[in-house]
Specification:
single chain, alpha/beta, TIM Barrel, about 35% helix, binds zinc ion
């Protein structure tokens, strides 16, 4: 494979981004990333308020980065945080710009983000949390009308993992996970391997068991995303994640340009 393809990265244009877009691109180049797609957040009703993007500024900064780093493919995407309540507004925001990539994500479960920790987990067992989460992801994946890939399946345990909570496993909710993966395979949606916790836990979201199942159910397309919010996290775990994806039976990564997948041999 010629260079890494990172299709989930944030800049300071996102409410929780910490590094300016140009610095993120420089970090990509330094980490061996040759194709990068920014996926700034659109997400309503979070504990930190509403996440929207200054679209004019987004385009301006992308153009500036393309001029500064002409050897890199720099693309424009959004991470669309779906809920039943906000779906219409998210969809509206997702159509403001011509995008290369729409990454669907589900952060809020019953109106709360599991990243809140105690507030979310105080009234739920691990089993209940896994069930509610998978149900919410199923709802988003099957109802959100327009997207290319699904981000970080297993997010529900991202912030508690290692603290007595194993990551989400296929065996936690096999029926719901099958329903999610089957829908994605049948509709040509890509599954993201999110590496944001790779350094700590040595695996991506989702883990190998869920990737293997996606392959078994006929899923073809995988994207790789660091979900970096600062320069230190760019391309985290990408070499190992690439090996993991190959070991699960996939031969290609899907890289999106103008909403079309180009296949990059692993
Ligand atoms: Zn974020
Ligand atoms: Zn996310």
């Amino acid at each position: 494979m010629q260079g890494f393809c990172d299709q989930h990265i944030h800049s300071a244009l996102s409410l929780d981004g910490r590094s300016p877009l140009l610095e993120q691109v420089r970090a990509c180049r330094d980490a061996g990333v040759t194709q990068v797609c920014f996926t700034e957040h659109i997400d309503f009703g979070t504990q930190d308020g509403d996440f929207t993007v200054d679209f004019d500024e987004y385009v301006r900064q992308i153009e500036q980065a393309r001029a500064a780093f002409p050897d890199l493919c720099i693309r424009v995407g959004l991470e669309l945080g779906d809920t039943e309540e906000s779906r219409g507004r998210v969809l509206e925001q997702s159509n403001v710009l011509p995008l290369d990539f729409k990454l669907l994500s589900r952060h809020l479960i019953g109106g709360i983000d599991p990243s809140c920790g105690a507030k979310f987990f105080a009234h739920r067992t691990r089993e209940q949390a896994a069930h509610e989460y998978c149900h919410a992801v199923y709802e988003s994946v099957t109802r959100f009308p327009d997207y290319d890939a699904v981000a970080h399946i297993g997010y529900v345990f991202k912030f508690v993992q290692g603290d007595g909570f194993p990551p989400l496993r296929y065996r936690d909710e096999p029926d719901l996970i099958d329903a999610i993966l089957r829908f994605m395979a049948e509709h040509g949606k890509a599954l993201e391997v999110n590496t944001s916790r790779w350094t700590r836990f040595g695996e991506g979201m989702p883990g190998k068991d869920i990737l293997l199942r996606f392959c078994e159910l006929g899923g073809e397309w995988i994207t790789l995303g660091s979900d970096a919010h600062d320069t230190a996290s760019v391309a985290q775990g990408f070499a190992q994640a690439t090996e993991c994806v190959k070991a699960c039976g996939f031969e290609y990564l899907a890289v999106f340009k103008q909403r079309r997948a180009e296949l990059v041999r692993l």
